[in-house]
Amino acid sequence: MSTIKIRSKRLADYTLVRTLIAHPMETGKRKDDDTGELIPAHFIQTVSFKHNDQLMSQCQMGPGIAKNPFFSYHIKSAQAGDIIRISWQDNLGYSDTAEHIIR
Amino acid sequence: MPTTRRDFIGKMLTLAGYTMALAFSKTGLASWAAADFSRQTFASTLKQLFPGQALKETNKIHLKLPRIAENGSVVPITITSSIENVDTVYIFSEKNPVPLIAKFSLNPELDAFIGARFKMQETCDVIVVIRADNQYYQTRQKVKVTLGGCGG
User: How far apart are CA A44 and CA B147, in angstroms?
Assistant: First the structure.
């Protein structure tokens, strides 16, 4: 299952795009409750947001973004059938991409 | 032209060099600026990101933030701005170990709007810097954190 959920809503003035990514976003400073050992850092570093293959936003982030990152954007003009593509890469080399069609 | 072994190895090395340069330049586009996200004070992050730039205080950036965040590990923020031609948005939490939370580039096809959730170590100011037409604007809001969210 994809780690990315995308929802969109066409409104009068803009289209609202919301995305939720399932990711632990470990800072590397947190300790395991049972063993007391540090949990290694594991966080998303870049997220890109494309609308019909046009790059809308590129986000660089550190461990300061909350666990299971949520982002929302407003596209000025979008049509039904347009494709939204969100992808992320993390510091351990994992990545994922998901597509969503605006209704 | 006869190909000697020396020639051949030389050519292969050049080719390898080009391939690597290409690969690096490709990742370079979306590469992650590790230095910007290093553990340092807010002041030195600012100095590093905006050397010699004046950050103008403005009331044209509107932040929707909780006044009191009961749980610092999930603080929602919504940024809207009436500034024209916004191309980059930076979010900072002044007292986090890594003060730079995130940096968003915005295409002109997007409204000057970002919603996100971030972590806060302790009560401090949240600063948002916006770049538009090569000018930098900033605004800040204090968030009281009851339970820190950066672990450790």
Answer: 23
The hierarchical CATH code for the domain B34-145 is: 2.60.40.2470
Q: What is the CATH number of domain A4-101?
A: 2.60.40.10
Instruction: Please indicate whether, in this complex, the C-beta atoms of B111 and A77 are within 8 angstroms of each other.
Output: no
Minimum Cα–Cα distance from B74: chain A residue: A66
CA B144 to chain CA mean position, Å = 23
Instruction: Using a CB–CB cutoff of 8 Å, tell me whether A24 touches chain B.
Output: no
Give the number of other Cβ atoms within 10 Å of residue A15's Cβ. Answer: 21
The predicted pLDDT at position B124 comes to 95
Show Cβ contacts of residue A26 under 8 Å, excluding neighbours closer than 6 positions: A39, A40, A41, A42, A43, A63
Q: What is the pLDDT of residue B152?
A: 44
Query: What's the DSSP call for residue B34?
Result: G
Q: What would the pLDDT profile of A29-54 be if each residue is shown by its tens digit?
A: 888 888 989 999 999 999 999 999 99
Task: Give B71's contacts (C-beta < 8 A, 6+ positions apart).
Answer: B146, B147, B149
